[in-house]
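My current task is to audit a protein record that another person submitted. Thanks in advance; the entry in question is below:
***
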Amino acid sequence: MQPILSVRQDAAFDTQGIADIAQNPRQAVQVVQNTASGAMGLAADGASGGHAVLASLPAMYPEWLGDRSFAEQHGVRFPYASGAMANGIASTQLVIEMARAGFLAFFGAAGLHPDRVATSLDEIEAALGPNASWGSNLIHSPNEPAIEAAIADLYIRKGVHRVSAAAYMGLTLSIVRYAATGLTRDDQGRVHRQNHVFAKVSRPEVARHFLEPPPRALLDELVALGQLTKAEADLAALLPVAEDFTVESDSGGHTDNRPLTALLPTILTLRDAIVAERNYERPIRVGAAGGLGTPGAISAAFALGAAYVVTGSVNQACVESGLSAEGKEMLAVADIADVVMAPAADMFELGVDVQVLKRGTMFGVRAKKLYELYRAYESLDKIPETDRQRLERDYLKTTLDQAWADTREFWIGRDPKEVERAEANPKHLMALVFRSYLGQASRWAIMGVPDRRIDYQIWCGPSMGAFNAWSQGSFLEPAANRHVTQVARNLMEGAAVVTRAHQLRTFGVPVPGAAFDFRPRLLT
């Protein structure tokens, strides 16, 4: 039997045939060569027709692209998770749909009141049942440690067994308590975890904190507080805080803008060194996030060694996300350069930035102006009259005195100590007023407030523009058609196609560019 496709390097060849085969990675294929003529070709598995077989490539599925232990440990079908976009943008419906389709998903709890988080957790469990695989966000809150502790306590009480730990620069009592709660050892001496921490990291020094066991002093303090048993603390002293690490490169929201090709190998090397030093027996998985908006990007992340991938910006534009319809339409027309860094509401006084959408909104420019004023002046009273008028007219849409009154009322209900501090420190008072604008800008985008459209704060990375370019002309181009499970399935299916094309190229097959161009399609 002749090969189903025969080509020569020095003659015209059937580029469409090669591309068609690459586009179907579920088909096992052989790379063959005619020993007399040297012609190379592809044959259906087992149909080499007497030609020399240079390689046999078995069927490949999207489920197989990452570390198999990821799916086994977390009870999912795909090595793919949707990230915990804050303020409920990673909504309950998004989590429910992803979990039903065999993906991991994290609820966006950051920025929400604990009561709202509790209600959302109940909604997810009611829809999925008690044994489904999903998680929620636990964000480090240096300005509000009581909120961080309350959320961690809520997760432990309600049996949320996976958290995406974000914005941590070091370990806190809350994250250590969550990780160590429920640790047990069976009759064979194997340690079992009840709670799994997905540590989001973009720096080796932060990754090291989570790769090492918690400091004994933190464990002893938790035991003294009655928040861990001595047995749990003793086991925690033998284990890393986290066994899943999400390496975050250039992403929306909080980001260090580091390239994945530099960051991921660095963290993998650190992981291997600490595993060897500590003689850990349980697998520690390192996943990739940031900039993953096309099949090629997903495939590249797995090729670098990622155990799993996490998407964010592209999910925010999906039907199930908590962002308003207006915000989704703005994202759906963004290009890769339509992003900008702007001061973060939660870490404003520290000078920390987040990456946000630039096109169609003035938020980035206005947020930077607020930080410049904060750095330049010691109080609201010291701001020059021209700037003061602009703030009241364009930014706050009220007087500075009323803006502080509204801000004060908010903090009286959330943390009265912030009000005491502000009334004793005019510069902190100014920071709270400015942070109020920054925080509300995100909620205006979520609620779709019409007269605040120019102030929308929409967290977004360059992957959004890449996704838009890839989906152009397909059923995924309109925002109304972007369902989170279709986006996930197409990205993973496309990544398998790109991986297959790479495999064929490494064996000398003249693979055309069309073989790498997976186009979105309705998948079930």
Remarks:
- Residues 5-59+497-516 form one domain.
- DSSP finds 20 helices and 17 strands in the chain.
- Residues 6-12 have pLDDT under 50 and may be disordered.
- The chain has three domains: 5-59+497-516, 64-323, 328-455.
